[in-house]
Amino acid sequence: MENISFKIDGRVCSAEKGQNLIEAAKQNGIFIPTLCHFKHLNPLGTCRVCTVKNNGRTIAGCTVNVEEGIDIEVNTPELLDARKAILEMMFVEGNHFCPSCEKSGDCQMQNLGYETGIRFTRFPHLFVDRIVDARPERIVVNQNRCIKCKRCIEEVRTNDGHRVFNFTHRGNNTVVGIDYEQEAKLSETQAEHAMHICPTGSILVKGKTFGKPFGDRQFDFGPEGKMIPLKEVKKHKTTNKKKRIATTSLAGCFGCHMSMLDVDLGLLDLLEVVEFNKSPITDIKTFTERCDIGLIEGGCCNTHNIEVLREFRKNCDILVSVGECAIWGGLPAIRNTVPLEDCLKEAYLNSMTSEKGETIIPNHEDIPKILNKVYSNREVVEIDYHIPGCPPNANHIWNVVKHILFEEEYSIAYPEFKYD
Amino acid sequence: MKRTGLLSRLWEFQNNYGYISENAITEIAQELNVSKIEIEGVISFYHFFHLKPTGKYIIYLNNSIISEFKGFSKVKAAFEKETGCTFGAYCKDPLFSLFETSCIGLSDQEPAALINFKPFTDLTPDKVKLIIQQLKSGVYPEQIANNPKSKIQYTPEESKTVFFRKYLLGNSLKKLKTKNPEAILKTISNSELEGHGGAFFPTALKWKSCKESSDNKKYVICNADEGEPGTFKDKALLNNLPGLVIEGMIIAAYVTGASNGFIYLRAEYKYLLKKLENTLLEFKQKNYLGKNINGIKNFNFKIKIIVGAGAYVCGAETALIESMEGKRGEPRIRKYFPTDFGYLGKSTIVNNVETFAKAARIIELGAKYISSIGTKKSNGTKLLSISGDVAKPGIYEIEWGITINELLQLCQATSPHFIQISGPSGICINNTEFNRKICKEDLICGGSVMIFNNFRSITRIIENYVKFFKEESCGTCTPCRAGNQILHEKIKKIKRGICTTKDLNEIKEWGKIMQLTSRCGLGQFAANSFMMAIDKFEDYFNLKVAKCDDNCKIEFDMQSAVYDYDNLIKNTQFELTE
């Protein structure tokens, strides 16, 4: 075994010749995020999250074997952004509803989202209708969450060496297909192995989900002391002595408001320096004065939401999307893969509780019209800051508000940064 | 059956039964001792294989941008009207099945379609009506098909012509007798031949690497999977000079020591199969293929034709190799060159049709002759396929260094405005660049030149490209698979008139990320034309977008957001009053 030396971001590292770059970097204390890379598997090079530069040329890090003298760039601003962008692409391409996902907290993709500090995606969510396939004997495959990393395809085989999964179709229609016959031959342990190697919650074993409670999950706490920096908040100048905050809940569940109340005693401190204007907390229905911060919970699912949101934009200096629904639609956006007509018919005409032969979908000029899909607030007005979470942690909200009001440097502790 | 025979086996089923049934899949999976999903994965990768029954006549209508501008939608409607079938649907019609397909190499005769892989060109609704009537009355497609021959519109003066000059079978091969492989390689190297498929990798380097490999088996593959929209120059070579291409392959085998060769022919050119097979037979009869070729001891080489099944990405050499191995045509990771680890893991050279033909001419005419033509860095001539808004579309053999202006005059373009060089994954140019020269020093071109006039919508052009890449991406890596879908969303925004300058900037930023991180050339170049067009046709895009500053107010389209609801409510209320 020959030891060689090479450089990562200018730092001299040493490793065995021909070792996989991801492993070699790890040994030298440098973390290169990956999703498809999986120990003994041939380098797959599918997810592209580990994109690095090798002597100036971009390449998937997992496909590089270290050689004497190679010069690797990992954490340049360009590459960090590209990596973040790829993760964001995964989030918008699939339908990743973290709060309702069994793998949440144990999901490697979600964890990388935290690591890279993704608060919202720069790309529009595609909301493609994808199936959840429960036909297999032991497992359920949820195509909404699949990122096509190929791990299961390469790793999961029956005892006689047959593949259980394989890509089918191509282009934007590519999916991981399941061979039901082969799947039935898997033992319980093999099926669980498939679930564990899936970097998202796409492969689940029937009856084995929701194994661990909140707080016990793999990525609940992250590396100790790890902080996610607050960035991208606009510098804010006001002359008001007493700052004003307004809040509202659009297409949300009021959970984020509950979380705001969880600020607890902090609220008393807050009330000394701020006053609440239009807000469900104060029950003030219309803006009486211009506000410094508007906290928006929920996305836009009807015309009324749009009007309220526009009003907030008009009356607030800084708008903050609070929670997943406000940021990209969240749970209400589950309907975005289904045509509106089907949604309403299911709700009012064909549901188990609707009258037989019902033909009327309620409609009145006072009832806001339902939009063709749930829109994120970003699609309607300019949003200045995003607080992820379902609901966001109270400390997270509190820290952001403090940061904006008093221009305090602050960052969010890892366990307080969540999508669920 | 070996796995490598999978594609031809699947073709058997497809040809005999019109689709590949569940039973067929089971049978093949058992034979190969793999799971059924693996076979299904291969079948569904190629768009000429079907998992559901099709009619007696399968019609593939080309939906490339050239076709679109020459009347695609009318022809499409005519096909649907005359057959009563819908495009892309597996209706139970026993006679017809209709599908759209990417460029079929007939851009000079669009709109064009393949009916049971026989070419039908210059289609109009009237023509369609007639064709369908004839087919219904029992006429065979081959009886009424058109000649797919592309017109060779231009060749330089005879002393400067390389490809389309007099061809005598075996002229280049005769030289092999007196020269050893090293000398032949030296000639190729002296001529500075580069891959004419579009990558322009030095051919001699590739051959040398294969020659030096210690593998006991080596392969020579001719890449006849010319899928770049707007290209049909390889078809012209295979049609007019199949022998020249084969001679090039034999020379490559002589240099590298390979004993097996393959021509990977795209299914769209299946009508050339017979001709190629006959040419191969002729070569065998003259002892230019087989054992002790041309009397050279121990020089054994044979060539087999493999027919592709409809996948643009298989034009990438590693994807092509995967496809030949009976797998999904996914490009391999960039770790080895095929000359290190190619077909079945052995040293393999993959060259384009034109490269082989040129190699044969170099051996025949000498490196000096070739080097005296063209520019300093680009030797000899290049075949261009010109299509679009020109009076004389077709094949042009040009001397490297010709200017776009000269080219436009030759092909009699009418008010050219937007020119696409090297196909959608190449680059686009505007009229300030028409004095640029086609050569390595300035504007390199893989062979496709699509010329669009003033009246053509640039949005439509770009949309066609994006849709093409979205469908033809192999789907393996994230930036290409998701990126093209995301770019398509932007196009939709431009079309709806709610695009801002911020959107245009985002397109450029996002395109860069695709370039940076995609696994193969397809993803790396997919956003190129879109990004370039935004800069090069600034005036056009400025009219399309609303200007905005950093704090730009986003236009929310309330009308379209409530359209569905209004419609639905209108209908349910109507039922009530009834």
UniProtKB/TrEMBL annotation, chain A:
The keyword Transcription does not apply. It comes from the Bacteria. Keywords: 4Fe-4S, Iron, Iron-sulfur, Metal-binding, Oxidoreductase. The keyword Translocase does not apply. Gene3D superfamilies: 3.10.20.740, 3.30.70.20, NADH:ubiquinone oxidoreductase-like, 20kDa subunit. Residues 78-117 form the 4Fe-4S His(Cys)3-ligated-type domain. Residues 2-80 form the 2Fe-2S ferredoxin-type domain. InterPro entries: 2Fe-2S_ferredoxin-like_sf (IPR036010), 2Fe-2S_ferredoxin-type (IPR001041), Hydrogenase_assoc-protein (IPR051349), NADH_UbQ_OxRdtase-like_20kDa (IPR006137), NADH_UbQ_OxRdtase_ferredoxin (IPR054351), NADH_UbQ_OxRdtase_Gsu_4Fe4S-bd (IPR019574), NiFe_Hase_small_N_sf (IPR037024). GO terms for molecular function: 4 iron, 4 sulfur cluster binding; metal ion binding; oxidoreductase activity. This is [NiFe] hydrogenase diaphorase moiety small subunit. It comes from Lutibacter oceani.
From TrEMBL, chain B:
Signal peptide: none annotated. Pfam families: 2Fe-2S_thioredx, Complex1_51K, NADH_4Fe-4S. Residues 459-504 form the NADH-ubiquinone oxidoreductase 51kDa subunit iron-sulphur binding domain. The keyword Metal-binding applies. SUPFAM superfamilies: Nqo1 FMN-binding domain-like, Nqo1 middle domain-like, Nqo1C-terminal domain-like, Thioredoxin-like. GO terms for molecular function: 4 iron, 4 sulfur cluster binding; FMN binding; metal ion binding; NADH dehydrogenase (ubiquinone) activity. Keywords: 4Fe-4S, Iron, Iron-sulfur, Metal-binding. Belongs to the complex I 51 kDa subunit family. This is [NiFe] hydrogenase diaphorase moiety large subunit.
